[in-house]
């Protein structure tokens, strides 16, 4: 049995290293929080010591074997080149000493040049193969994080000239850092929440309403037009009663106008909408009519982190009619890979407003930072 200890900053990092080094059959024997060494450890976040074991070490991955072989080859070739250069130096010295006495044939020099050329060609081929291995390793890294194929090709094209895996990863980090936008503004006026059925709009609105009313002590009003889904109105009504918030149920456009008027004393009005099929243009157009009647200050599209990549385009395209201002990502706690976030952020070109990380109301919602989203996408941390 092989037993190893890992000192890490998160369990996600531990799992990644354990799977890579010990294989999928490894088991965690223990975990405990420890202080960072030195004086600064008293003021820094604690580390985690994880002990893992495996009955038999897995065979090294092919790309690692190949990388080691090529690394060894490169070292050998370098030594060979150094020896050849040394020999050449000796030959040049001899030539200088004997030049006065006799003419030296240039055939040995030509032969040496030929050998040096062959060595350079061989080194070039080895380095090329090493670069291919590093690229394959990087592509696997992206695929493991569920980043879509089309984005993988774009990323690889942009950073193909960088051979080392860690360098590629750092360029990717900078690429994502420039791609991600965060909306740090506070909610004001009337805010509409739209999105497909099942993404968690109603619960998200309840979380936001709870923070505004209970923590920030603001006057909050709720409006729902989600009368199609069974239990939707009752769910929001229960939250409203618990928080002491006014709720208006709207069925017609005229009622939307009246509801906005009734709640005009509120600091913020949150509008819950019916989940509509993004492929049904007529349904989205009907929803748009209600949204326009509300005269919102902001419109946010709510999307789940577990939506399939192939459905993201359809949803973003369908809801373009609403001209939404930002994205709310829900259910981060229900997945372990976040490559879909890259597609949502890139294709929508909109800022992330909130993310939700669980079912608790109002606790499990927050405004994320760029760093938190980067760590999620790169698999360096769990939910924010």
TrEMBL record:
InterPro entries assigned to the protein according to its UniProt record, in alphabetical order: AAA+_ATPase (IPR003593), FlhF (IPR020006), FlhF__GTPase_dom (IPR047040), P-loop_NTPase (IPR027417), SRP54_GTPase_dom (IPR000897)
Subcellular location(s) of the protein: Cell membrane
Pfam families associated with the record: SRP54
Gene3D superfamilies documented for this protein: Flagellar FlhF biosynthesis protein, N domain (1.20.120.1380), P-loop containing nucleotide triphosphate hydrolases (3.40.50.300)
Major site of localization recorded for this protein: membrane
Location of the AAA+ ATPase domain: 187-380
Its membrane topology: Peripheral membrane protein
Single GO biological process annotation from the record: SRP-dependent cotranslational protein targeting to membrane
Any GO MF annotation of the entry: GTP binding
Domain called SRP54-type proteins GTP-binding: residue spans: 188-379
Alphabetic keyword roster: Bacterial flagellum biogenesis, Bacterial flagellum protein export, Cell membrane, Cell projection, Cilium, Flagellum, GTP-binding, Membrane, Nucleotide-binding, Protein transport, Transport
Domain of life: Bacteria
SUPFAM superfamilies documented for this protein: P-loop containing nucleoside triphosphate hydrolases (SSF52540)
GO CC entries: plasma membrane
Signal peptide stretch: none
NCBIfam families found in the cross-reference section: FlhF
Purpose of the protein: Necessary for flagellar biosynthesis. May be involved in translocation of the flagellum.
Family designation: Belongs to the GTP-binding SRP family.
Protein name, as recorded: Flagellar biosynthesis protein FlhF
Species: Clostridium intestinale
Name of the gene: flhF
């Amino acid at each position: 049995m092989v037993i190893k200890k890992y000192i890490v900053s998160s369990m996600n990092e531990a799992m990644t290293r354990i799977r890579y080094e010990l294989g999928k059959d490894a088991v965690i024997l223990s975990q405990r929080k420890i202080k960072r060494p030195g004086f600064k450890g008293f003021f820094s976040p604690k580390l985690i010591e994880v002990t893992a074991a495996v009955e038999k070490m897995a065979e090294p991955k092919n790309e690692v074997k190949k990388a080691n072989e090529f690394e060894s080859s490169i070292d050998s070739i370098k030594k060979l080149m150094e020896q050849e250069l040394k020999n050449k130096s000796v030959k040049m010295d001899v030539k200088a000493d004997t030049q006065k006495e006799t003419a030296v044939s240039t055939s040995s020099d030509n032969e040496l040049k030929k050998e040096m050329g062959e060595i350079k060609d061989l080194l070039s081929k080895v380095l090329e193969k090493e670069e291919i291995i590093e690229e394959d390793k990087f592509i696997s890294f992206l695929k493991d994080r569920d980043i879509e194929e089309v984005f993988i090709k774009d990323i690889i094209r942009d950073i193909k000239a960088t051979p080392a895996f860690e360098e590629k990863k750092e360029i990717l980090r900078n690429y994502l850092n420039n791609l991600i936008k965060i909306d740090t503004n506070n909610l004001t006026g009337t805010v509409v929440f739209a999105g497909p059925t099942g993404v968690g709009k109603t619960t998200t609105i309840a979380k936001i309403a709870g923070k505004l009313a209970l923590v920030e002590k603001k006057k909050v009003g709720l409006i729902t037009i989600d009368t199609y889904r069974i239990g939707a109105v009752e769910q929001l009504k229960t939250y409203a009663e618990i928080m002491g918030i006014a709720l208006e149920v709207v069925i017609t456009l005229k009622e939307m106008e009246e509801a906005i008027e009734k709640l005009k004393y509120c600091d913020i009005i949150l509008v819950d909408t019916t989940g509509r099929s993004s492929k049904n243009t007529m349904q989205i157009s009907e929803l748009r009519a209600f949204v326009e009647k509300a005269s919102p200050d902001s419109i946010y599209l709510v999307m789940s982190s577990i939506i399939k990549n192939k459905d993201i385009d359809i949803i973003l395209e369908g809801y373009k009619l609403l001209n939404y201002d930002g994205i709310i990502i829900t259910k981060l706690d229900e997945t372990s890979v976040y490559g879909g976030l890259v597609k949502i952020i890139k294709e929508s070109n909109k800022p992330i407003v909130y993310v939700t990380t669980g079912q608790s109301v109002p606790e499990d919602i927050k405004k994320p930072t760029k760093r938190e989203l980067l760590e999620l996408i790169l698999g360096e941390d769990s939910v924010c």
